[in-house]
Design brief:
Its cofactor is heme. Its main location: endoplasmic reticulum. It holds the Pfam family p450. This protein is α+β, with helices and mostly antiparallel strands. The radius of gyration is 26 Å and the shape is globular. The chain has a domain of about 325 residues: Orthogonal Bundle (Cytochrome p450), CATH 1.10.630.10. The strands form four sheets. The chain has a four-stranded mixed beta sheet with strand order 1-2-7-4. It has a three-stranded antiparallel beta sheet with strand order 3-11-8. Strands 5-6 form a two-stranded antiparallel sheet. About 55% of the residues lie in helices and about 10% in strands. Strand 9 and strand 10 form a beta hairpin.
Length: about 500
């Protein structure tokens, strides 16, 4: 009886009290930690004025979905060098909107910001996009031969072949009063092109609907990563894992990885036999995947299977999705400006003569077309922002400083439209990139491929594909905008349109 009375008087055993105490202590330590981080951020940004923020939501409540780019431009005009951007109560970065500040950031050699990029690791692995330090340097050195002149030159006819397949599809779709949504078609074309060029794989993905699953998976992944950055509760791994979006992310990763795994397995099978490898060498130039699989450093050490997978996933994404964005917005700019479209067409006709396709030597002669491409990349950079995490303090040209550990985001979109750098920045003017104007421009005012040691390793590949796509498209079609379906640019991992990019196409004779 006494035992029962004791249990009633003290129903919770001592271990339960101990566990509750530990939980309370953990919560208090966590609160103290985030509070201290918040105070450190306040101190770091005290010399950088910025837009007023909500104590809990930061600036998120001020940025309506779909209106992000207009908001960053309005803040850039008010704070023309840099301003703090709060993604909640405890997370913030300095947003850079001026080339003089970008020069300091890109020259600093800091790693990518892990706050956002770490959520891409389950998808892209630790490839060039995410790596930093000695391993990044090793990968960069091993992969650089994959973008040599001798490797890129044979890609041009393969790119042209992929573009022609897309244009053949468009001929069957066009009507006088119905527009064509470009982005999905261009995405399939750039995927087809990179499969042929970088992986020597003729997949027929433009004509076989199965490949749409990979395109859709990449689209989902870029949206989901962007949304996770903005939605603070999803910063917690457990919360994200059990959420519907977490399930979508894992499924999209599975589909994307299945695609790249098949490409790697197929190549490994063909390279197992040394005689077969020698036949491949005689039949064609080594491509990106050959170089990836056979690359070795000075100690004879190559890339691990995990490293190869990460670089293939990274290049598959960056080589097709960012280029698809660039091509789609370029064709939209051509549609908006028929006078520049016609001048490019005339230049291309003069270069090609009676030929109906384009060759390597033609690319360097596309002077005016290249100026139009660069002006399109200025207005619509495929990667609208990049970020870095400072590994040492930084001092900007005006004397303001940031301490180690702070995150810095370079808003490429804002720098490209900064009125203190570009006259009439919203106007499409290819002459900004004429030879006589190049010397007048700040070297960090135009950043479509980032800058510094971590600039885009595949930028020449991308520029070649932009030129090929523009030339062959203008030889076959006149492009006009669809007034009923204007694009609405949104910044995800790449610059997309939430409404698609619709153009009216008319066969050109």
């Amino acid at each position: 009886m006494a035992f029962l009375l004791e249990k009633i008087a003290n129903p919770f055993p001592p271990l339960l009290y101990l566990a509750a105490g530990f939980c309370l202590l953990f919560v208090l330590l966590k609160v103290t930690q985030v509070y201290r981080k918040r105070q450190q951020l306040f101190k770091a940004f005290e010399s950088f004025p910025g837009p007023p923020r909500h104590w809990l939501h930061g600036h998120n409540s001020q940025v309506a979905q779909g209106d992000e780019l207009n908001k960053v431009l309005s803040w850039m005009k008010e704070y023309p060098y840099a301003y703090p951007r709060w993604l909640g109560a405890f997370m913030a970065s300095l947003v850079v909107t001026h080339p003089e500040y970008a020069k300091e950031v890109f020259g600093h050699g800091d790693p990518k910001t892990m706050t956002a990029y770490k959520w891409m690791i389950p998808w892209l692995g630790k490839g060039l996009l995410i790596l930093h330090g000695p391993k990044w340097f090793q990968h960069r050195r091993l992969l650089t031969p994959g973008f040599h002149y001798d490797v890129l030159k044979p890609y041009v006819p393969l790119m042209a072949e992929s573009v022609q397949v897309m244009l053949d599809k468009w001929e069957k779709l066009i009507t006088l009063d119905k527009s064509v949504e470009l982005f999905e078609h261009v995405s399939l074309m750039t995927l087809d092109s990179i499969m042929k060029c970088a992986f020597s794989c003729h997949s027929n993905c433009q004509t076989e609907s199965d490949s749409n699953s990979y395109i859709k998976a990449v689209y989902d992944l870029t949206y989901l990563v962007f949304h996770r950055v903005r939605f603070f509760p999803y910063h917690n791994d457990f919360m994200y894992q059990i959420s519907p979006q977490g399930h979508r992310f894992r499924e999209a990763c599975r589909i994307a990885h299945l695609h790249t795994d098949n490409v790697i397995k197929e190549r490994k099978r063909s390279l197992q036999d040394q005689q077969e490898f020698q036949k491949i060498q005689k039949k064609r130039c080594l491509d990106f995947l050959d170089i990836l699989l056979s690359a070795k450093d000075e100690n004879g050490v190559g890339l691990s299977d995990e490293d190869v997978r990460a670089e293939v996933d990274t290049f598959m994404f960056e080589g097709h999705d960012t280029t698809a964005s660039g091509i789609s917005w370029l064709l939209y700019c051509m549609a908006l400006h028929p006078e520049h479209q016609q001048r490019c067409r005339e230049e291309i006709k003069e270069i090609l003569g009676d030929r109906d396709t384009i060759q390597w030597d033609d690319l360097g002669r596309m002077t005016y077309s290249t100026m139009c491409i660069k002006e399109s990349l200025r207005l619509y950079p495929p990667v609208p922002a990049v970020s870095r995490q400072l590994i040492k303090p930084i001092t900007f040209f005006d004397g303001r400083t940031l301490p180690e550990g702070v995150e810095v985001g370079v808003s490429i979109y804002s720098i490209h439209r900064n009125p203190s750098i570009w006259q009439d920045p919203e106007v499409f003017d290819p002459m900004r990139f004429s030879p006589e104007n190049l010397s007048k421009r700040h070297p960090f005012a135009f950043l479509p491929f980032s800058a510094g040691p971590r600039n885009c390793i595949g930028q020449q590949f991308a520029m070649n594909e932009l030129k090929v796509a523009l030339a062959l498209t203008l030889l076959r079609f006149e492009l006009s905008p669809d007034p009923a379906n204007p694009p609405k640019a949104i910044p995800q991992v790449i610059l997309r349109s939430s409404t698609g990019i619709h153009l009216l196409l008319k066969k050109w004779h």
